[in-house]
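@channel sequence for tomorrow's demo:
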Amino acid sequence: MPKRILVGTVVSDKADKTIVVRVERKVKHPMYGKIIRRSKKYHAHDEDNAFKAGETVRIEETAPVSKLKTWKVVDRVLAGKAAAVEADV
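structure tokens (generated this afternoon):
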């Protein structure tokens, strides 16, 4: 079975070798038909502590690393706004 790959935004990078990624999806409301946003947070393994809050990353499903971590970071899709501001200074 293929591994799932999701794209989301890093919300927290405070833990060692772990980041929290918020993945948003858009769904149609069952009764009213309006498109609404739903989000879920995933703990992902970041071996080198390379990713910072605000960056957009791609995560992949993996065997459990710890109690909460069953995802690992594959790569960076887009640098965060804070990282871009620091680069300009």
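heads up for whoever presents: The mean pLDDT is 91.
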